[in-house]
């Protein structure tokens, strides 16, 4: 049973911020691998980039862009709640962040596809 406090949009914004942060942290080793291959040799980086042309990687790229946007919007929401004097439009900030993440993900799909 979900407690009433966990049924609030603010709780789910908190969860989205934390989960996106953990997912981005899990992505970092792959990113560092790509950077290391770029420093190692052109051929090694080309092999990695040719493997990254796989449709599964393209879907993962889209997920990464959406996760970055979710994390950014949720972080900006937290900063606004901490540093700005108003507190009334919390649900509006959550909705704005969600719409922004969906819009950025859709734009990325249109540009990549």
Strand content: under 5%
Radius of gyration, taken over Cα atoms and rounded to an integer in Å = 18 Å
| CATH fourth-tier homologous superfamily | Fumarate reductase/succinate dehydrogenase, transmembrane subunit
Average pLDDT confidence is 85
Head-to-tail CA distance between termini: 41 Å
**Which stretches are poorly predicted, pLDDT < 50 over at least 5 residues?**
none
How many domain units?
A: 1
Indicate the overall shape.
elongated
Which series of helices and strands comes N to C? HHHH
Helix content percent band: over 70%
Q: What is the quaternary state of this protein?
A: single chain
Short descriptors:
elongated, 113 residues, 3 helical TM bundles of succinate and fumarate reductases, single chain, 4 helices, metal ion binding, transmembrane helix
Please characterize this protein's 3D structure:
This protein is mostly helical and 113 residues long. It has a single domain, classed as Fumarate reductase/succinate dehydrogenase, transmembrane subunit (3 helical TM bundles of succinate and fumarate reductases), CATH 1.20.1300. 83% of the residues lie in helices and 0% in strands. The protein has 4 helices and no strands. The protein is elongated and about 55 Å long. The mean pLDDT is 85.
Task: Kindly summarize this structure in a few lines.
The protein is an all-alpha fold and 113 residues long. The protein has four helices and no strands. The protein starts with 8 loop residues before the first helix and ends with a helix.
């Amino acid at each position: 049973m979900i407690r009433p406090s966990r049924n609030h949009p603010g709780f789910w914004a908190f969860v989205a911020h934390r989960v996106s942060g953990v997912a981005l942290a899990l992505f970092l080793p792959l990113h560092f691998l790509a950077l290391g291959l770029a420093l190692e040799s052109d051929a090694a980086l080309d092999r990695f980039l040719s493997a990254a042309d796989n449709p599964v990687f393209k879907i993962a790229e889209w997920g990464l862009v959406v996760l970055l946007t979710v994390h950014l919007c949720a972080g900006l929401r937290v900063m606004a709640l901490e540093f700005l004097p108003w507190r009334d439009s919390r649900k509006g900030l959550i909705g704005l962040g969600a719409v922004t993440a969906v819009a950025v993900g859709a734009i990325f799909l249109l540009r990549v596809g």
